[in-house]
Amino acid sequence: MANLADELQQRQHKLAELRNKGTNPYPQRYERTHSIAELIRQKDKLVADELKIKTAGRIVTWRGHGKTCFAHLDSDGTRIQIYVRQDQLGEADYQQFKLLDIGDFVGVEGSLFYTRTNELTIVVDKYNLLTKSLRPLPEKWHGLKDVETRYRQRYLDLLANPDVRRIFLLRSRLIQAIRDYLNQQDFIEVETPMMQPLPGGATARPFITHHNALDMDLYLRIAPELYLKRLLVGGFERVYEINRNFRNEGLSTEHNPEFTMLEFYMAYADYNKLMDFTEDMLASLAQQVLGKQQLEYADKTIELTPPWKRLTMLEAIAAHSSIKETELGDLKQVQDIAGELNIPVDKHDSWGKIVQKIFEQVAEPKLIQPTFIIDFPTEVSPLSKAKPDNPALVERFELFIGGKEIANAFSELNDPQDQRRRFEAQVAERAAGDDEAQYLDEDFLRALEHGMPPTAGEGIGIDRLVMLFTNSQSIREVILFPQLRGEKQTTTRDKE
């Protein structure tokens, strides 16, 4: 095969020749009578009736035999063979057809028949070039394997790797199934600001931008939580948003700085009701999208059929290590344990923050089957309602499946005075150097002072859920255009 530079030059020459012959290589539109998928579905009737059809697609294979040519067209992931003959088109049109390449889009008119090998085929009476491709597609035989190229040029990845296409089709179906489930439960879908005067609703470092007309800094949202809760104050009792969030954090197989989350709130419920609700929702989604309630993830079979295990954070640490719950009782004890485990601890870290770090190291990776970790330390949960019998803990859970956090939820704190104290503690942590600590949001406190009903709220990471449903080991596999390090800017000539 010619090298890339020769291939690009040949295609440019073909483009010029087509234009010299009066062909527009980029026409505005093409009217189809059928998509290729419709032809496949209706093939027996169309063949029997000998109907003339018009369809279109990208040329993905090509076999020339002198005065005849076989090719395959692909449209929306479905293929059909076409059969082109010089005596059918005429010599001039046939010779011009031979100026087309794999990758070009073409519209064809003709009728359907079955070849001797029983392959459905269009015998072409007329064709129209719809788009001339100036770059070759990846070699289909070998596929597109380079990970960096796959993510950076996702359009080629989708063309070369059918499994990638299936991941994103499943993602779309899953998101639609989430909407259907919540709508049937009397939730309403809402939209809240993506640019906010104060970032809130999560412990994370935000991206900052500037609004010129208002001459003020704004933050890309790290979570929609505080705005969704304002809607509870305003009288909506069940709301949800499928939202894009932005956190200025590192890249990993589980983190992308721009990600998708489902966040929903239910008035008059607590975190116990949300656990039951979450079990039913995710099991129902799996049944609808996958046709079963079992997932194959990595080398494990995960069972989503309820009920799921529930452990307190302290119980989980004890269950997955040699540490006893009684050894986690005070700040000095957890500092010593963290030191033995080589867990980095800041001098300002509270008991609760260190306990969470210990949990993340010794227990989290081992939570393969669905497990609710409940009753988090108050210091790491500034928006959660405290447990009535133990104010050092809050009514919060995180759901873990396949060793990954999938959901975060709690009985929402609706006491404005307690919320102010929690915000003030966060402000003190920020002043001490924690740039992920939350801000004090006076308008949100004012809203709470008007009264928010008892409420439970939850966030579910859509990207991680898709990872589980598609057995994908990296979050970049389930985001169409994941964030990557900057690519060296080169000209087309440099790339050749």
For the secondary structure, the number of strands is: 19
Top-tier CATH class of the largest domain: Alpha Beta
* Morphology: elongated
Main sheet: strands, sense, barrel: 9 strands, mixed
CATH second-level architecture of the largest domain: 2-Layer Sandwich
Under CATH, the homologous superfamily of the largest domain reads Bira Bifunctional Protein, Domain 2
Structural class by secondary-structure content: alpha+beta
Number of domains: 2
Mean pLDDT: 93
Percent of sequence in beta strands? 25-35%
CATH fold-level topology of the largest domain? BirA Bifunctional Protein, domain 2
Uncertain runs are 491-496
CA radius of gyration: 29 Å
Spatial separation of the terminal alpha carbons: 15 Å
Total DSSP helices? 17
Helix-residue proportion:
25-40%
Describe this structure as you would to a colleague.
The protein is α+β, with helices and mostly antiparallel strands and 496 residues long. It has two domains: 4-131, Nucleic acid-binding proteins (OB fold (Dihydrolipoamide Acetyltransferase, E2P)); 160-320 and 363-477, BirA Bifunctional Protein, domain 2, CATH 3.30.930. Helices cover 35% and strands 27% of the residues. The protein contains 17 helices and 19 strands. The strands form four sheets. Strands 6, 10, 11, 14, 15, 16, 17, 18 and 19 form a nine-stranded mixed beta sheet that branches. A five-stranded mixed β-barrel has the order 1-2-3-5-4. It has a three-stranded antiparallel beta sheet with strand order 7-9-8, with no helix packed on it. A hairpin with a 2-residue loop joins strand 16 and strand 17 (390-401). Helix 8 packs across helix 16, helix 9 runs parallel beside helix 15 (442-450) and helix 11 (313-319) crosses helix 13. The longest helix is centred in the middle third of the chain and has 23 residues, at 162-184. The protein is elongated and about 90 Å long.
